[in-house]
Amino acid sequence: MRLRIGALRSHGPAGGATGYCHCRRCQRRTGAAASAQARVPPGSFIVTAGLELIREWAPEREFAKSFCSRCGAQLFSHHPTDAAIMSVRLGAFDEDPGVRPSYRQRVESAAAWEPLWDDGLTRYEGPSPGVAER
Fold first, then answer.
1. Is 49 part of a structural domain of the chain?
2. What digits encode the pLDDT tens for the residues 12-31?
């Protein structure tokens, strides 16, 4: 898999739970109504080049957000106490990551300015079951 910015390379599959998060934090971080992301199996995602370009913002007791210091691209996030639990932003891939969102979580926070349309995806008021908080 190749991340969007040419200086970063990674190895590992996108997979696992894939969906949209509509929480306020994701709206602010992305500047959009939701964040599309895929959970990756623990230990399967390794940055093989460009590690020095990655910066991180780690809010207290919440998933740390990693981004490229060169272009600002949002790359992935990881659990605050277990970095093996992580999600990769679908927009960070150069090519089709091979997965499609299957749910929308935190729809109670959906942006008023972009109504949710009936796309057939499962909806959750809070976090998706089986997915660690944020």
1. yes
2. 555 678 999 999 989 998 89
The CA-CA-CA angle for residues 131, 46, 80, to 5°, reads 40
Does any domain span residue 129?
Answer: no
Please tell me the pTM assigned to this model.
0.82
Q: Give the residues of the chain that fall short of pLDDT 50.
A: 1, 133-134
The per-residue pLDDT for 33 is 95
Q: Quickly list DSSP for 53-77.
A: GEEEE--TTS-EEEEETTT--EEEE
CATH number for position 60: 3.90.1590.10
Q: How far apart are CA 69 and CA 132, in angstroms?
A: 27
Alpha-carbon distance 115 to 33, whole Å?
9
How many domains does the chain contain in total?
1
